[in-house]
Amino acid sequence: MTNKKAIVVGLGPAGAAALRRLEELGVDSLGIERKSVPGKPVVCGEYIPEADEISFITRYSSLRKAYNYIGLAPKLCRSNRIEVDINGEYILDLSIKGYTIDRAKMIENLLEGTYHILGDAVRKVIYENNVFRIMTKEGREFTAKYIIAADGSPSFVAQSLGIGWLWNSYDVAIGVNVRMYTPSMPQDAIFMYISPRYTPGGYAWIIPRGNYLSNVGVGIRLNYIQNGVNPVSLLKDIIRINPRGYLTNAKTKGKILGRWIPVGGVRNSLTYCNVIFVGDAAGMVNPINGGGIPTAMASGIIAAEAIYREDISLFEKRIKEEIKPAIDIGLSYRRIVDFAYNNWWVTKIMLNIVPKRLATKILKGEPTFLSSILK
Ligand SMILES: Cc1cc2nc3c(=O)[nH]c(=O)nc-3n(C[C@H](O)[C@H](O)[C@H](O)COP(=O)(O)OP(=O)(O)OC[C@H]3O[C@@H](n4cnc5c(N)ncnc54)[C@H](O)[C@@H]3O)c2cc1C
User: Fold this and answer.
1) What angle do CA 29, 278, 110 make, to 5 degrees?
2) Do 152 and 283 touch, CB atoms closer than 8 A?
3) Are residues 54 and 132 in the same domain?
């Protein structure tokens, strides 16, 4: 049985960043990922806002480091605006700069030089005598002092330790995405489509990733799915209604795939014994826009630095300072969106009076007078 100081379970953006940081700090560590090619198939928009656009969060060292790591990914397509189509009735053209990354390549580059196992899933985690025993599907067994649970949402590690939690159905969305050839989609913009009929409680996207290929998807809250809404059918409907004509002559290039997105904010308990939950496993997604890559990676970096210092309370402290405030703001804006979906006639009036600058800030999850009131 191999013994390690730290084992990272799951090598998505959060786990790969954590493992890379552990390696840089010289901590004896191992990563375990159930997929044989981490990050593939891609179920993600792969969109990253420029660091300057979200300086209210990228001023923190964990986020700055996360953006350094994101820099290891090939940038596929730059955009300088986000076009928001509200039910075909209003268009908001918001100037927000960003880019699309090759997410799988970023993970591959982060893992270079780290000790990791691919294509094997953690099946059991036991905590006894202050040590974790970790067993895998392929029959491997390890012990470790620390675990970084970067296994997405819902966390298998949490379930295995008997501390799994249930999300309120308003606080989890399912995101479905398909890669498409989109010759009619502008290459300098991200397209968002919001409609009470086709995107209840969420939004649809077309995110160009170069060479007229795009990630096309929709995110829908679980409470709507429980009410009988099928996200795959919705995505097909959206492709059929072809908002703004951006999907004219479009062709699907793969399967529609889905994944949970935790949109209920940061978990209350982020650690358990010496387990640290990071990324989606800890709810580090901005609830207003569903963006989670930079914050997932920053939380992985903070976890690695806390283990290096042998002080996991440092993790909770830094998350509260560096990541949670921004996610809390996103959560309060999400309440406005919930209200808007349930009171569409009010939304129509509001759209005529909300200044573009305020809408831009809300979409980015930036603090405004509104977030202070909602707090
Ligand atoms: C459709 C969709 C579109 C999105 N678009 C964007 C976007 O454009 N920009 C953005 O910033 N965010 C986006 N997000 C959110 C973003 O993808 C996530 O927040 C981010 O991937 C979280 O990273 P993570 O490493 O915490 O979790 P994950 O990416 O879920 O990675 C978890 C990893 O753990 C592995 N794993 C799970 N269980 C085990 C186990 N038992 N043993 C071993 N390995 C295990 C999984 O295989 C996986 O590789 C999107 C999400 C979805 C669903």
Assistant:
1) 50
2) no
3) yes
Structural domain range at position 224: 79-99+169-261
Among 261, 286, 303, which residue terminates a domain?
A: 261
**CA 14 – ligand 1 centroid, Å:** 8
- CB distance 285 to ligand 1 below 6 Å: yes
Q: Examine the domain organization and report whether 196 and 224 are in the same domain.
A: yes
Query: In angstroms, rounded to a whole number, what is the distance separating the alpha carbons of residues 4 and 143?
Result: 6
CATH classification of the domain holding 60:
3.50.50.60
Q: What is the token pair recorded at 95?
A: 């100037």
For residue 92, give the DSSP letter: E
d(CA 370, ligand 1 centre) in Å: 30
- Is the beta carbon of 9 within 6 A of some atom in ligand 1? yes
Task: List, for residues 203-228, the tens digit of each pLDDT value.
Answer: 999 999 999 999 999 999 888 887 77
99 lines ligand 1 (CB under 6 A): no
If asked whether residues 178 and 202 sit together in one domain, one would say yes
Residues 196 and 301 in one domain: no
Q: Would you list the DSSP string of 10-70?
A: --SHHHHHHHHHHHHTT--EEEEESSSSTT-S--S--EEE-GGGGHHHHTSHHHHHHHHHH
Cis status, amide bond into 154, omega within 30 of 0: yes
CA of 248 to the centre of ligand 1 (A): 30
Cα separation, 56 vs 323, in Å, equals 10
- Domain count within the chain: 2
Which tens digits make up the pLDDT trace of 62-100?
Answer: 999 999 999 999 999 999 999 999 999 889 899 999 999
- Whether residue 26 lies inside any domain: the answer is yes
Output the pLDDT for position 166. Answer: 66
Q: Would you put residue 189 in left (φ > 0), alpha (ψ -120 to 50) or beta?
A: beta
Identify whether the C-beta of residue 174 lies closer than 8 Å to the C-beta of residue 234: no
Same domain, 68 and 132: yes
45 lines ligand 1 (CB under 6 A): yes
- Ligand 1 geometric centre to CA of 133 (Å): 24
Q: For residues 25-36, give the mean pLDDT.
A: 98
196 and 303 share a domain?
A: no
